[in-house]
Amino acid sequence: MANESMVPLLPCASIDEIHDFCVALGFEVTYRQTRPNPYLAVRRGGIDLHYFGIEGFRPEASYGSCLVVTDDTTALYDAWAAGLRARYGRLPLSGFPRITRPRRRANADGLSGFSLVDPAGNWIRVTRRPADPSAAPAEGEAGAASTAGTAVEGEGRAVATTTSSGTDEDRPAEGTPGESRLLRAVADAVVQADSRGDVEQGAKILDGALRRDADAGDQGASARDRVEAQAYRAELAVRLDDPGTARRMLDEVDRCVAAARGQHLTQDLTTVLTQLEDVRAWLSAQG
């Protein structure tokens, strides 16, 4: 087998801005030039990213995307989140740059994944390596205004994507045995908001699911499932620049947790509650 690799070339308005962003995430600069055209190459472990400068380029107009396959999405997320907090003072959940949290992707065979959107609007999509190396994850993810398919090259390489349509992102989440309807709705919302970039649709799915769960009363989801859904809805409110809904969801989480004090809070729920501190920090910055 030939020793081949693929490196994505991503557009940006300023290689200086991208340089500072990438260094904060632990990348090293392997090449840089300003003339005759701006160009920057960075590397972190098995991830190579190359950027070329375009004067007047707007992140909202970017269709750039690549895929990173790793054995541990949580470790990579934690490292990048720490770098983002150090550079920006808090975890950026909206705008450019921003990051989503590792979550199970129903459109990627249930593998955990998250997305990092750089200052130029390029989506760096991270997914866990499948147990079967021949079963490449096919998220069929999309940026804010595009539908992108993915191609995978092993050993944690970032690879360029190609556009496609009619992919698995249009399927509703099938869920797992014993999973509540509310958690299945969360999985659907993750596909729309985190994978496709359609945050409004993800919020709409969760709003309907939370309303139906409230109407179900004692027959509804567990406190743990409800908190997970409310916490994710709060995060989507941040992305939509909707502080009112973010505050309301945090209040709902607080009430739900207070009512469930006698129940065992799993480590997973504790993690969700800890992550909400980033939402609270965003709200504090709103004044």
Architecture overview:
The protein has 287 residues and is of the alpha+beta class. 39% of the residues lie in helices and 17% in strands. The protein folds into two domains: 9-169, Roll (2,3-Dihydroxybiphenyl 1,2-Dioxygenase, domain 1); 172-286. The strands form two sheets. Strands 5, 6, 7, 8, 9 and 10 form a six-stranded mixed beta sheet that branches. A four-stranded mixed beta sheet has the order 1-4-3-2, covered by helices on one side. Strand 2 and strand 3 form a beta hairpin. Helix 3 (181-195) runs antiparallel to helix 4, helix 3 (181-195) packs parallel to helix 5 (223-239) and helix 5 (223-239) runs parallel beside helix 7 (267-286). The longest helix is centred in the last third of the chain and has 20 residues, at 267-286. This is VOC family protein. It comes from Oerskovia douganii. Residues 133-153 have a biased composition (Low complexity).
- Output the structural class: alpha+beta
CATH fold-type name of the largest domain: 2,3-Dihydroxybiphenyl 1,2-Dioxygenase, domain 1
Summed up, the helix count is 7
N→C terminal distance: 58 Å
Looking at the structure, what is the overall shape?
globular
Q: How many strands in all?
A: 10
Helix content: 25-40%
Count of spatially separate domains: 2
The secondary-structure element order is EHEEEEHEEEEEHHHHH
Assembly classification:
single chain
Task: Quote the average pLDDT.
Answer: 84
* Main sheet summary: 6 strands, mixed
In the CATH hierarchy, what is the class of the largest domain? Alpha Beta
β-strand percent reads: 15-25%
Low-pLDDT parts are 141-174
Q: What would you give as the CATH superfamily of the largest domain? A: 2,3-Dihydroxybiphenyl 1,2-Dioxygenase, domain 1
Biased composition (Low complexity): 133-153
InterPro entries: Glyas_Bleomycin-R_OHBP_Dase
Region (Disordered): 131-182
Protein name: VOC family protein
